[in-house]
Amino acid sequence: MLNNHIKDLEIFQGTVFQSIFAVLQRGILITRKTKRKMKFMKIGTKPDTFYTEEATRTVISDIPSDLTIRINNVCFLLHKLQVPLVPKCGLLQRLYSDSDDSNVVTLDLHDVPGGEDAFELCAKFCYGITINLSAHNFVPAFCAAKFLRMIESIEKGNFVLKLEAFFNSCILEGWKDSIVTLQTTIKLPEWSENLGIIRRCIDSIVEKILTPTAKVSWSYTYTRPGYNKKQHQSVPKDWWTEDISDLDIDLFRCIITAVRSTYIPPPQLIGEALHVYACRWLIDTTKTRLPHSSGSQTEESKEKSRRILESIVSMIPAYRGSVSIGFLLKLLSIANYLGVSPVTKTELIRKAGLQFEEATLNDILFPSQLSTDQHYYDIDLVSAVLGSYLVLWRRQSPAPAENSHYLRSIRKTGNLIDSYLQVVARDVNMPISKLVSVAEALPEFAREGHDVLYKTINIYLKEHPDVSKADKKRLCRMLDCQKLSPEVRSHAVKNERLPLRTVVQVLFFDQESGSRAMTHKPKFTTRARQEQPETGAEAKQESDNKLQHEGMKSRVPETSERDFQKRSEAKTARGESEKGKEMRGGANSSSKVFQRSSR
């Protein structure tokens, strides 16, 4: 496959190579590609005479084989001295000298790094057969050559020297070459670490990441939606994030750690790299519910994803805003599905709580991934993040005042939660306890009005017609009738889904508000204009008094039948206006309803 790939590169439009230099020295040909493509090296001039038959690999030759090398389950039938195989390999010289004087020598090299494929590259080099080296096979070839001791002290111009020259002049100079080479080290981590391949590749990659964008001249991958390189002449600041997302998580962590240690890229850029990596390797659980399987393959994949997610969370910069709240909530949803450690989940909830006021409705509308949940939306996760946010809010906020930053924050969060509850109330399997728990978690002054809360209750009762009377009362108990608009109160008194006690309370406050409006009705227009500032001051004073009592719910007292009738009779005796008479009629009818509910 690699040979075909290289052949395709050579004939691509007939002009792929921008510079070609050949060094014919001991059968070596090095070809360097353009700055926009990866580089490779050709060594040797002879055609490939190796062939494989079952588990045996041999060379087509008139000379019979006198050297057998066994690697794992593969046997190589080669020649000792007729070709410079043994003379080029210090290890084979030592093993050959220790063997008996029989005509055919058999050697076992089961521990050669890279296995039989890497050894075949070394053997072909000794036979002078053409081989193609690139970032994809450099690491096993280099490790195997080191293992076989194909060094200069054994023979001049040996394989290790050629590989080191290619590594220094081509791989480390290239952007994608360094990344591909670094990724291949995961198959030989100890050898790559001891030979310095990992360290030098990381240094090369980090150096290029820190290069000013105006000096970036190499090819990179950037496939953001809506981005067109032809329309953008400047290099984007996050040009490097997609290419390094191909790396294994441990190597990716090394890159990010090295970049962060320089304190040059801003935290948001680090966060973007983490976001790209998560999108590359983690499944998206925010769109639909995923099946839970107990198969070994699935469990192995889950374990890998858990390790990736926990590593990503540990790399998120402490700076607030380095990643978006949407990304944090997405990670939290994935964490629920994967079953990550409690420490990781707690840290995600804490980070999400810090930025929860920035969330949108789409950010928190995702399905539950717990197999035990019958309801669709993950309301428990939203409740946990909301709780973390409220703990931090209460710790930081002083006594709330009108137009303060903390009041605006809690009001914004309150609007978000109420909008969320309206959506989840349509879930036919949503338990009423979870809905009430989230709704009551907000402090009193988080809601300027209760119109949206009333709509949520109405939606829930409509979608759950079989809800019990006790649950209806529990649901409506969190409703403050004083905070309902006249339009909503008018709808509520006609709503047959509401408990009778709630309807009576709405009628009561509707009557109270109407009476106050008639009592304070100005006789002259000029008088109304004079009293307008005073009314505004009173409203502000009343608002401040309400805000000073956090957590105190302004409930309508459960008026007894006798008190309710006394209030109605007192208003009847006033005889204020025709509208007052109509209201008295409404009070009498409500009293009858109250009597029926009491009975």
TrEMBL record:
Biased composition (Polar residues): 587-599
UniProt entry tagged with the keyword Ribonucleoprotein: no
Keywords, in A-Z order: Ubl conjugation pathway
Pathway: Protein modification; protein ubiquitination
Coiled-coil annotated residue ranges, if any: none
SUPFAM superfamilies with a match to the protein in the record: POZ domain
Occurrences of domain NPH3 (ranges): 238-513
Sequence ranges of Basic and acidic residues compositional bias: 528-584
Keyword Secreted tagged: no
Residue span of region Disordered: 518-599
Superkingdom assignment: Eukaryota
One Pfam family matching this protein: NPH3
InterPro entries: NPH3/RPT2-like, NPH3_dom, SKP1/BTB/POZ_sf
Similarity field: Belongs to the NPH3 family.
Name of the protein described by the UniProt record: NPH3 domain-containing protein
